[in-house]
Amino acid sequence: MGTVAEEDKFREINIEFLAKGGDEAFDIFYKTDNFGEDKFVKFASTERKHQEKVMRLLEEGTDQEFYIHESDLFKYYKYATNSLRAVMANPDIPIKEKTEKIYEVSKGVMKEFFENNTSEKILETSEEVMEMMEECMTTAEAGFHGIAEITSKDYYTYTHSVNVGLYCMTFGVKSKMSKGDIKQLSLGGMLHDVGKSKIDHALINKDGKLTEEEFKKMQSHATEGGGILTGMNCFAGNVVRMAAEHHEKFKGGGYPIGKVGNEIHLFARICKVMDVYDALTTRRSYKKALSAFDTLIIMKKQMAHDFDPDLLQNFIRLMGPDL
Ligand SMILES: [Fe+2]
Ligand SMILES: [Fe+2]
């Protein structure tokens, strides 16, 4: 078995998230160098008799990196959400630390999905983590400023997804939407680009001009995303439409359909604002991150036709005190 194939099967984990345990046991490995090849050695399993070993390590602290087999990812994320619940319930842990941990797990879930071709079933985890995040945000009365502090400023499809989910959530909370709507809006924000999982990494990261064919392929992510989420049968129509319609433009000329105004679902119109905001305020290999202020100016002056003007105005108003 070659190194690459072997490495492909193991995923780095954060053992901190094993603290609370879960129902099903799985093995934990560490990596060693075996004559220039990575070798994964079993450290412990999550069975009760081994749990002590993990707990001791957690208490002592370690720089060692740990791995699990990819087939155990679902179990791991189950453990991670259990641990997050315990973190949430602990009044001694500051809210900032709580949100950072939730961000880490959300990022992990989306990264698995986008970069390692993990089954879309893993996306089901996003509902639970977003719920916890909402709980944190409501408790802390965190606004866009608080969210901006925890979001990654380097653009990857997976961080962008979580960021858009959080911005959508903040917008919902600040606009006093119902709990159910906030839940769907944040979930749809997090899942709006899932269709990109069907596109080659090389194309997604290409920084030069795209050929017409490549451009068409890129655009297909909206329809593909709607299809993936519909196929999963567990997401509301509102969530599906955010994925399918977030590239439509308010005054027309967007894709895939070219819908205008209110034909575009309200949640998709909100998603569009957050999508562009995050894309402009994060760095990529070929562009710097813009400040919040410059971004809002561009959105308002140069891209005004793309957005629902009332929503953009509301967003700017809600951002206001944080600028
Ligand atoms: Fe998109
Ligand atoms: Fe996006």
Descriptive report:
- With 323 residues, the chain is an alpha+beta fold.
- The protein has two domains: 1-73, no CATH class; 94-322, Hypothetical protein af1432 (Orthogonal Bundle), CATH 1.10.3210.
- Helices cover 56% and strands 8% of the residues.
- The protein contains 14 helices and four strands.
- The protein has helices at 3-8, 48-60, 73-89, 95-115, 125-140, 144-150, 157-174, 179-191, 201-204, 212-232, 237-245, 266-281, 292-301, 309-319, and strands spanning 10-13, 27-34, 37-45, 66-69.
- The chain has a four-stranded antiparallel β-sheet.
- A hairpin with a 2-residue loop joins strand 2 and strand 3.
- Helix 10 runs antiparallel to helix 11 (237-245) and helix 11 (237-245) crosses helix 12.
- The chain is globular and about 60 Å long.
- Bound molecules: fe (ii) ion (FE2) (2 copies).
- One fe (ii) ion is lined by residues 160, 164, 192-193, 275.
- One fe (ii) ion (FE2) is lined by residues 192-193, 221, 246-247.
Summarize the structure.
The protein has 323 residues and is an alpha+beta fold. The protein is built from 14 helices and four strands. One fe (ii) ion binds at residues 160, 164, 192-193, 275.
